[in-house]
Amino acid sequence: MDKLIVEGGHRLQGAVNISGSKNASLPILAAALLTDEPVRISRVPDVSDTNYMIQILSQLGASVERSSGTVRIESPDGISSSASYEQVRKMRASICLLGPMMARMKRCTLPLPGGCVIGDRPVDLHLRAIQALGARVRVKGGNMVIEAPNGLVGTTVDMRGDSGPTVLGTDNLMMAAVLAKGKTVIESAAREPEVVDLANFLNKMGARIEGAGSRTITIHGVEKLHGCEHTVIPDRIEAGTFMVAGAMYSDGITLNRVCREHMKSISDLLVECGHVVEYNEDGTSVFVKPGANPRSGKILTNPYPGYPTDMQAQMTALFAVTPGISVVKDTIFPQRFMHCSELKRMGANIKVDAGTAIITGVEGLSGAPVMASDLRASAALVLAALAAEGTTEIHRLYHIDRGYEMLDEKLGMLGARVRRELDPEGGPVEP
Ligand code: EPU
Predict the structure, then answer these.
(1) Whether the predicted pLDDT of 128 surpasses 70
(2) Ligand 1 and 50: CB distance under 6 A
(3) CB of 379 closer than 6 angstroms to any ligand 1 atom
(4) Which segments of 257-387 are extended strands (E)?
(5) Of all protein residues, whose CA lies closest to atom 36 belonging to ligand 1?
(6) Contacts of residue 172, Cβ cutoff 8 Å, sequence gap at least 6
(7) Which residue in 108, 116, 259, 340 is the catalytic one?
(8) Is 116 considered catalytic here?
(9) Are 269 and 245 spatial neighbours (Cβ–Cβ below 8 Å)?
(10) Strands of 257-399, DSSP E
(11) pLDDT attached to residue 425
(12) Residue 366 and residue 245: Cα distance in Å, rounded?
């Protein structure tokens, strides 16, 4: 199996560009199914999740061309309304095909996504939303068979679940509602910047969506959508990951193509923990370096604008080498702590209990062979490896490749010693 070999102890310095957002790109790519006219989407990161989505769209019958970050998609009439387990099992985010397929074809058959390592990951809220618009849902042979023979009809839907609003659930409902009859009101909508980016994309296609970014989104259904061009927002989690690298082990690094507004909770926590975070005037570039007196901290993950669950593993790596006791509680995915046992193999002092990690900072970590368990857990291991003494081998590299575009090249540009060792047997590369 491919692995990443990181030789620790080389302080980072220099500048890198942040890529377009993976989590904004995925629903936007799926939304291309809403029109038969061509759409052009720029700054789509070249990561395996966006590649899976592009493959699925092609297999459904769309024509897709990709060249240097720009994807052109044309979905003629007659595209398939069903995707197979083989096609979608590699990526949980394929659930966001549900909204556009229902809007365009009034029916779809999609495999029920299973759980994943970060938790149970149910889809009850997605199904409740599509049922509220008038669709009938059956489960057959592991598939969701969803039909709305009389079309979808707008209504008011509350998207709040036990753990707060759902991001892809809000996306799905918005995409289903844009071509529904009448008005749909989404209460307790997710406010994430990726939801706003999708709404902006849909409005460019001719949709009438108001209120994205707030708790209530109103959608007035339209007859038809048309083609458009769109540039995806910067990836705030990739930016946050590099910011943690800058705070953890650098002489100061600069990250370009960021959006300060989206980074507030991530930047604020680094500043609270004593690190230097300085944005340029228009907030598109940020300089980060370790503070002279780093302090421990507390994280309680929350939906946006709260602290993102997608950043807690990376901060745990930083806390592992920060003096004092830090506490990380994940309310969104309480089981998302697989990285902690691997960090402990590198010398970290972490106790995990009931969705909370208690981290007692140690003086230093030491390189070790470790296993990536999910995308953000693998990012945490890379960060720990950069600051550790000696060499770390990170196995199951495919997790990193799902969501970080050219991570090894970017770290190399900052002076890190990182190389990829390809499995001579060409071992499994899929999750
Ligand atoms: N939930 C339900 N029922 C549902 C859907 C969600 O109970 O029908 C629960 C989940 O179990 C969780 C909470 O609601 O406790 C929030 O989950 P959400 O639906 O918002 O997650 P998602 O939309 O499936 C996106 C990101 C994740 C990110 C979460 C939370 C994409 C492609 N994925 O997932 O990103 O962690 O929002 O912010 O946008 C990652 O990039 O590493 C990643 C996992």
Answers:
(1) yes
(2) no
(3) no
(4) 276-279, 285-289, 298-300, 325-329, 349-353, 356-360, 369-371
(5) 310
(6) 27, 95, 96, 98, 99, 126, 129, 130
(7) 116
(8) yes
(9) no
(10) 276-279, 285-289, 298-300, 325-329, 349-353, 356-360, 369-371, 391-395
(11) 67
(12) 17
pLDDT (tens digit, 9 = 90+) per residue, 57-100?
Answer: 999 999 999 998 999 999 999 999 999 888 788 888 999 999 99
The CA 97 to ligand 1 mean position distance, Å, reads 15
Quote the CA–CA distance of 287 and 280 in Å, as a whole number.
8
Centre of ligand 1 from the C-alpha of residue 398, in Å: 20
33 CB near ligand 1 (under 6 Å): no
Question: Would you state the structure tokens that stand for residue 370, as one six-digit string?
Answer: 């470790």
Q: Give the span between the Cα atoms of 405 and 392, in whole angstroms.
A: 21
Q: Tokens representing 87? A: 């096609």
287-332: pLDDT as tens digits: 999 999 999 999 999 999 999 999 999 999 999 999 999 999 999 9
**CA 412 to ligand 1 center in whole angstroms:** 31
Predicted pLDDT at 431: 47
Quick check: CB of 310 below 6 Å from ligand 1?
yes
Which atom in ligand 1 lies closest to the alpha carbon of residue 162?
A: 7
